[in-house]
Amino acid sequence: QVHVVESGGGLVQAGGSLRLSCIASGRFSDGPAMGWHRQTPGNQRELVASMSRLGRKDYSESVKGRFTISRDIAKSTIYLEMNNLTVEDTGVYYCNHPEGLLPWGQGTQVTVSS
């Protein structure tokens, strides 16, 4: 089974950028579908970006045009490039299968200040 460890979060001013990384252990050689989920204070976890096994990318409307998901199968790593961050992007970011089928990692905290 695939286990994930997220990193790259931090404190950034509005308009800034961050790059999140997720290293997956286990059966990642075939590049499974993966995504980035976000949990904001008081809200349920939501899928904000995903990549299918064949490489198709999808984004939620709230991040489209600002976030980019990518992967390096050789490194078993999934990335989330986040640009033009807003206060509303503050939350804990998790990588997982788009349907959350894997054990959840600890996530990485992103805090955007105004």
Please outline the helices and strands.
Elements: E1 3-7, E2 10-13, E3 18-25, E4 34-39, E5 46-51, E6 57-59, E7 67-72, E8 77-82, E9 91-96, E10 108-113
Parallel strand pairs: 2-10
Antiparallel strand pairs: 1-3, 3-8, 4-5, 4-9, 5-6, 7-8, 9-10
Can you walk me through this structure?
It is globular and about 40 Å long. The strands form two sheets. Strands 2-10-9-4-5-6 form a six-stranded mixed β-sheet, with no helix packed on it. By secondary structure, it is an all-beta fold. The termini are far apart. A hairpin with a 5-residue loop joins strand 5 and strand 6. It is built from no helices and ten strands.
Net shape = globular
Helix fraction? under 10%
Low-confidence stretches: none
Q: C-alpha Rg, in Å? A: 13 Å
**Quick one: how many beta strands?**
10
Strand count, sense and barrel status of the largest sheet are: 6 strands, mixed
Beta strand %? over 45%
What's the rounded overall pLDDT mean? 93
Span from first to last CA? 40 Å
